Automatic annotation (TrEMBL), chain A:
InterPro entries per UniProt: Asp/Glu-ADT_sf_sub_c (IPR036113), GatC (IPR003837)
Designated gene of the protein: gatC
NCBIfam families the record matches: gatC (TIGR00135)
GO biological process, alphabetically ordered: glutaminyl-tRNAGln biosynthesis via transamidation; regulation of translational fidelity; translation
Enzyme class: ligase
Protein name (record): Aspartyl/glutamyl-tRNA(Asn/Gln) amidotransferase subunit C
Organism lineage: Bacteria, Pseudomonadati, Pseudomonadota, Gammaproteobacteria, Pseudomonadales
UniProtKB/TrEMBL annotation, chain B:
Pfam family, one: GatB_Yqey
Family recorded in the similarity comment: Belongs to the GatB/GatE family. GatB subfamily.
Enzyme Commission no: 6.3.5.-
Record-given protein name: Aspartyl/glutamyl-tRNA(Asn/Gln) amidotransferase subunit B
Listed GO MF terms: asparaginyl-tRNA synthase (glutamine-hydrolyzing) activity; ATP binding; glutaminyl-tRNA synthase (glutamine-hydrolyzing) activity; transferase activity
Catalytic activity: L-glutamyl-tRNA(Gln) + L-glutamine + ATP + H2O = L-glutaminyl-tRNA(Gln) + L-glutamate + ADP + phosphate + H(+); L-aspartyl-tRNA(Asn) + L-glutamine + ATP + H2O = L-asparaginyl-tRNA(Asn) + L-glutamate + ADP + phosphate + 2 H(+)
InterPro entries: Asn/Gln-tRNA_amidoTrfase_suB/E, Asn/Gln-tRNA_Trfase_suB/E_cat, Asn/Gln_amidotransferase, Asn/Gln_tRNA_amidoTrase-B-like, GatB, GatB_C_1, GatB_Yqey_C_2, Gln-tRNA_amidoTrfase_suB_CS
Key word Transport present: no
Oligomer and partners: Heterotrimer of A, B and C subunits.
Keyword annotations from UniProtKB, A to Z: ATP-binding, Ligase, Nucleotide-binding, Protein biosynthesis, Transferase
Length: 95, 481
């Protein structure tokens, strides 16, 4: 399967990537060559093989339900572009 | 045209853990903004999530309680979307292999029948932060304290056929998670939130109509009203020749209507994929067996036991078992007072209306189960009548002490000395000689009401303290005589 320019525009929008006119054909080609590799891999017979969720043959370790973090707000907010009353400020997100 | 309503619900329950699902930040509600948001919750580069074992345990408890298959091998996935209250740009959730599979829950309907509602799945995920749109002149304020709070999202089958059934189902889930102790159920604080998927179809049609999702309804009453107003909107729309479009809507309680939320939203393209930061979670059957042994008695079993053990009606048993706290309170009162039916009445009627009036839950009741049980003992040994008991109950609620102290201090002990009662009756009859004549002249049918008049006068004269049974008995013989 090959991606069209419109597919790439849509994916770029979903990922909030600003691709310009010059980027679009280049990115479309690059993605299509990756998909070409995927197509080759599709030829392998995987019947009866369980999908792999993680490359490591390991299981998730769990942590105890204990509060270990203390309030570091001032340090974290020192690098924020804008804050007010302890809140992070962002451009208005509601119409 | 006859329409059938089809409702499926997604309920988000915040799990009552101390720390977040993937970080060691606290989950306390109402803290100063962003004081419980660590580097992990802020989505800083280079951090790794580590799963909270208590969130896993709570999800498993829920699964066991609804008789569901528990995913022994389950996987976390990233759900990708951009919104400022989700700093990573994705929410860690579960897609293909959720922790809780297909189960079911029985709900009691108003007509006394029981309906089984299928639960499609329940999965673990992290909550987002909060956006505050007011007060920041042109900006939105973001509080990430809630980001990363563990959620169990419980998805039902589209098997409810009215707003009332939907509310009954939400109430049953609410009671269940509180019985299990996995969620505090505080809807005002957002601990339990409900998305309602609503569609209509001509009665008898097999295919579903196009559905709308009403987001984040946060009270039982609003769930019922939001669904009813959305159903009416869809009926009006279709009957006027229009078409329902699949979209997300918000319910506005002030206007009692739903309105479209995100018109531009592209049909959910979340591009889920397994989260490479988290390994598969394996749940052993031995672990589940141990957990099963810790399951408390759940509402359906409790209702059954209340009927068989205490001889309560199905209705009373259902009311009393509707919360774990209330059931425990009732059983304590019944054990101390020694009369379950009397205990059930006092808990449901007098205590119920007191709590209603004060607007508090039973765990903050101003009258303890011990106090109420102690008072019932005094009713049963005839120290006080049921009527005086209401006075004693009010005094206990006002903090005047235990029943015995109040009866003593206020001199409320019932008069059972028949000589004393006879004296009062003689006075009453003498003062109402005319009525006595009328009574004696009246036929049997009319006497009942007139007799009540004398009882009332006698009780008034004794300040309510005369034993009512004795008053009845003695009065009868005096009037006949």
């Amino acid at each position: 399967m090959a991606l069209e320019r419109s597919d790439v525009e849509k994916i770029a929008h979903l990922a909030r990537l600003g691709l310009n006119e010059a980027d679009l054909p280049r990115t479309t080609d690059a993605l299509n060559s990756i998909l070409g590799l995927v197509d080759q891999m599709q030829a392998v017979d995987t019947d009866g093989i369980e999908p792999l969720a993680h490359p490591l043959e390991a299981r998730q370790r769990l942590r105890a339900d204990v509060v270990t973090e203390s309030n570091q707000r001032d340090r974290y907010q020192a690098i924020a572009p804008a804050t007010d009353s302890g809140l992070y400020l962002v451009p208005k997100v509601i119409e | 045209m006859q329409w059938e309503v089809v409702i499926g619900l997604e309920i988000h329950t915040q799990l009552a853990t101390q720390s977040k699902i993937f970080s060691g930040s606290a989950t306390t509600f109402g803290s100063e903004p962003n004081t419980q948001a660590s580097l992990i919750d802020l989505g800083m580069p280079g951090v790794l999530p580590v799963l909270n074992q208590e969130a896993v345990r709570m999800a498993c408890m829920f699964g066991l309680a609804i008789d569901a298959e528990i995913g022994q091998h389950n996987v976390f996935a990233r759900k990708n979307y951009f919104y400022p209250d989700l700093p990573k740009g994705y929410q860690i959730s579960q897609m293909e292999l959720p922790i809780v599979g297909k189960g079911h829950l029985d709900i009691a309907l108003e007509d006394g029948t029981v309906k089984r509602i299928g639960i499609t799945r329940a999965h673990l995920e992290e909550d987002a932060g909060k956006s505050l749109h007011e007060d920041f002149s042109g900006s939105t304020g973001i509080d990430l304290n809630r980001a990363g709070t563990p959620l169990l999202e419980i998805v039902s089958e589209p098997e409810m056929r009215s707003a009332k059934e939907a509310v009954a189902y939400v109430k049953a889930i609410h009671a269940l998670v509180r019985y299990l102790g996995i969620c505090d159920g505080n809807m005002a604080e957002g601990s339990l939130r409900c998305d309602c998927n609503v569609s209509i179809r001509p009665k008898g049609q097999a295919e579903f109509g196009t559905r709308c999702e009403i987001k984040n309804v946060n009270s039982f009453r609003f769930i019922e009203r939001a669904i009813n107003s959305e159903v009416q909107r869809q009926i009006d729309l279709i009957e006027d020749g229009g078409k329902v479009i699949q979209e997300t809507r918000l319910y506005d309680p002030n206007k009692d209507e739903t309105r479209s939320m995100r018109s531009k939203e592209e049909a959910n393209d979340y591009r889920y994929f397994p989260d490479p930061d988290l390994l598969p979670v394996v749940i052993e059957s031995a672990y589940l067996d141990d957990l099963r042994a810790t399951l408390p008695e759940l509402p359906p079993q409790k209702v059954e036991r209340f009927q068989s053990q205490y001889g309560l009606s199905a209705y009373d048993a259902n009311v009393l078992a509707s919360s774990r706290e209330q059931a425990e309170y009732f059983e304590k009162v019944a054990a101390i007072g020694g009369d379950a039916k009397l205990a059930a009445n006092w808990v449901m009627v007098e205590l119920g209306s007191l709590l209603n009036k004060l607007g508090v839950e039973i765990d903050q009741a101003p009258v303890s189960a011990e106090q109420l049980g102690g008072m019932l003992l005094r009713i049963r040994d005839n120290t006080i009548s049921g009527k005086i008991a209401k006075t004693v109950f009010e005094a206990m609620a006002a903090g005047e002490g235990d029943a015995d102290q109040i009866i003593e201090a206020r001199g409320l002990k019932q008069v059972t000395d028949s000589g004393a009662i006879e004296k009062v009756l003689d006075e009453v009859l003498a003062a109402n000689a005319e009525q006595v004549e009328q009574y004696r002249a009246a036929d049997e049918a009319k006497r009942g009401k007139m007799f009540g008049f004398f009882v009332g006068q006698a009780m008034k004269a004794s300040k309510g303290k005369a034993n009512p049974q004795q008053v009845n008995q003695l009065l009868k013989s005096k009037l006949e005589g």
